[in-house]
Amino acid sequence: MRRALRVVIVVLMLPAFWMTARELFPYVKYALATAHEPVDARREEVWGRWYADVRAIPPNASVDVVMANPQARDNAVFAATALAPRVVFIYDSMDARQRLQPAKLYVDPVAVNEAMRPAKPGDVVLVVQP
Amino acid sequence: MIAVLLFPLLGCGVAAALDLALPRTAGARLGMFFLLGAGAHGTLMFIGGAYVAVAAYVLAILAIVMKRLPPIEEREPVIATIVIVIPLVLLLIGTAIVPLSDYDGRATWLPKAQAIAHEHSITGPYFRGERGFNHHNHYPLLLPLDAATMMNLTRDRSDHAVRWLYVLIPFAFLMFLRDRAPWFVACAAWIPMIVVAPEGGAMSAYADLAVMSFCGAAVLSAAEGGGAAGLWLLFLVLTKNEGTLLAIAIFIAMSLIRPSRRVWFSSIAGVSIGEALLAIWRSRIPNAYDERYSRLIRDLPSHLDRITPVARAFAQHAVEFSKWGGFWIIVLVAAIVTARRNRFAIAVIVIALAGYVTTFAVMNWNIEELVNVSANRLLLHLAGPAMLIVTSPIGSRASADAASDG
Questions:
Q1: B85 Cβ partners below 8 Å, 6+ apart?
Q2: What are B358-383's pLDDT values in tens digits?
Q3: Exposure pattern of A77-94 as b/e (b: 16+ CB <10 Å)?
Q4: Which residues have CB under 8 Å from B155's CB, separation 6+?
Q5: Helix %, strand %, coil % for chain A, to 5?
Q6: Given CB atoms, is B48 within the 8 Å cutoff of chain A?
Q7: DSSP type of residue B68
Q8: Residue B126 in contact with residue B115, Cβ under 8 Å?
């Protein structure tokens, strides 16, 4: 009885093996194929071209990340986190930057949606595309 | 390499100092020590920072030297271990090379770790909002504190310094469970949602697999009457907001099995300490994109009609073979067959699921959108207790006895 139960369980888990193998092996293959590249090149390849712009920003500069349009939201968030530990504020337009009004990135009716406000504009402006 | 050894060292010291019941094989012990160490390290850093953590490591070494651990009693289940280790090794290779590409890991959890590593504080300029973009400011910090330590030890504040941590935590839990039903745990080590899910799996830097591990360990420890239940619950509360809901579910379910006073006391102490630590810390930093749970409770009566579609959506995700294989179907059948023996773990899952479904129903988001984004991750939290339900009827007789509610 116990043996039959085990067979049924293994059969039910077979799709899990298959799906994981189907994702995991190409992932490792890709990793090994790109292992010789410098880490920044790998990041640019996976994260997008904005990462090249991030790398060009001086380490001590404060940065205003401005979304080219609303679709650039995710890239703006990723650019902001890649710029750490610099001071980084995200704006949804150049006009909002003039007003020092950071973007409200997530509007959830049952959450606090406040973005912290800066005291002054950043040293560098980085416009991020979708 | 030193960083990888730190957590098992601390975990071993904690187990020795507290005389915790240990698994019978070396592999399962190593899994337990790693998990215990990862939880204890983050907690100690949260309480008192690096000095407290260093003192704890010294005490851990003393405990290991002065107290002899009981000898290994059983041989390793070799084939099951190989099946478990294959995805682990592949993930370690992949994540060491491919940059992190999930959303919350990059936008929420790693920035917190980077800020702590840079500022050596959990109330520094980043958490006060002075460094600009920061969201979910009140999220618990156990994993970011672990990750920050690794970043400082390796002098690398990028994602590469910590990816292994997110891979090893779930695999440590699987090794901890392994001896209960080696071949089933070997199957579980290939569940896509655990291994390859881009949002929430071991390839990402989310906290959900740590929640799964600590929740599973807490349920196992409470069921076995072990004194470690309180520690696991403390780690659970400090890992993610959902940890509080899971801890409440475990408390309610504990009334079904009437555990010893030792388990009750340690559990209440663990959760109380965790909640107090979070409350004190949160009072010192502002909100930023943080949920207001009091409003969710206030709005509940007007959203009751959404409970049925949310519950249906959760069920649909649970039987998604591309994410879970037949895992939840197996759990359901095992729960029915062993309902009496596993009433504690079953009750934890049912109560926690009820909590999650209600929370989703109250949120004003589009149900389908919300469930698509997070249902599988919430199911992941319950996969730990669910594995206990399955391993008790099909594992060895000894493990079945240990798993039962007594």
A1: none
A2: 888 887 777 788 888 889 999 999 99
A3: bbbbbbbbbbbbbbbbee
A4: none
A5: 50, 10, 40
A6: no
A7: P
A8: yes
A-chain CB neighbours of B133 within 8 Å are 65, 77, 80-81, 88-90, 102, 115
Substitution target in A63, A66, A100, A116 with the highest count of B β-carbons within 10 Å is: A116
Length of chain B, in residues: 406
Please give the DSSP secondary-structure letter assigned to residue B106.
I
Task: Enumerate residues 295 to 324 of chain B having a beta carbon within 8 A of any beta carbon in chain A.
Answer: 295-296, 299, 321-324
Report the predicted TM-score, pTM, of the whole model to 2 decimal places. 0.94
**A124 in B contact zone (CB under 8 Å):** no
For the sheet with A124-128, list strands across it.
A88-91, A63-67, A124-128
**DSSP symbols for A65-117:** EEESSGGGHHHHHHHHHHTTTS-EEEESSHHHHHTT--------TTB--PPPP
Residue showing tokens 């401005």:
A66
The amino acid sitting at B83 is: V
d(CA B175, CA B172): 5
Q: Could you say which DSSP state residue A121 is in?
A: -
The alpha-carbon radius of gyration of chain A (Å, integer) is 22
Question: For B243-275, what is each residue's pLDDT tens digit?
Answer: 999 999 999 999 988 888 889 999 999 999 999
**Phi, psi (degrees; rounded to nearest 5) at B147:** -65, -40
User: Is A9–B135 a contact, with Cβ atoms under 8 angstroms apart?
Assistant: no
Q: Does B404 touch chain A (CB under 8 A)?
A: no
ipTM value for the complex? 0.91
> How many Cβ atoms sit within 10 Å of the Cβ of residue B287?
16
CA distance B197 to chain A (A): 9
How many CA atoms lie less than 13 Å away from B37 in the CB half-sphere? 28
A87 pLDDT tier (thresholds 50, 70, 90): very high
Angle of helix B26-48 versus helix B229-239 axis, rounded to 10? 60
CB contacts, 8 Å: A113 with chain B? 289
Residues of chain A contacting residue B188, judged by C-beta atoms under 8 Å apart: 13
C-alpha to C-alpha distance for A12 and A25, rounded to whole angstroms? 22
The H or E element containing residue B139 is none
Q: Which of residues 43-62 of A touch B (CB under 8 A)?
A: 43, 46-47, 62
DSSP classification of residue B132: B
Q: Which of residues 360-399 of B touch A (CB under 8 A)?
A: 362-365, 390, 393-394
**Across the interface, which of B183, B290, B295 has its CB nearest the CB of A6?**
B183
